[in-house]
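Hello support,

Our group uses your service weekly, and this is the first time we've seen a run hang past the timeout. The protein is Eukaryotic translation initiation factor 5A. I'm not sure whether the cause is the sequence or the server load. Input pasted verbatim:
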Amino acid sequence: MADLGNRENQAFGTGTYTMRASDLSKNDPIMLKGRPCKIVEISTSVSGKHGNAKVTIVGEDLFTGQRHEDVVPPTENVDVPNLIRKEYSLIDITSDGGVSLMDEQGDMRDDLKLPEGELGEEIKVCFEADKELLLKVTKAVGEEAILSYKIASKK
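Update from on-call engineer: The timeout came from a worker crash unrelated to the input. Re-ran successfully.
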């Protein structure tokens, strides 16, 4: 488990904190090649006649979907992005793909666009079918995007 004191102290400086490579697991966030990623594969090779143990980490960029890979010693500290996730009700979709969102406190925002590709199309189809949607927005190291959605349950 990460040292939470370290995490809190670094949260406002760089948007990342450090964690030992051997403490990471699949689906954890990590910075690879300077990009915030989700680990999709992780494996550790044992030390032997060819050198020390190594951790091979393959991650998928949270915002672009691009794959990145790195190999590090298990005792090395790696950067992990601070992720901020928040749900918003979808109020409207503009003709240029912009979205109007409202949080639980009633605060509005209109600075995001629908994601490209299949996710954006699914959201648009559901919205046009008059379904009440909650969009999940993730923010990491200065970037922010809609990464998923769910249909709101009726009360």
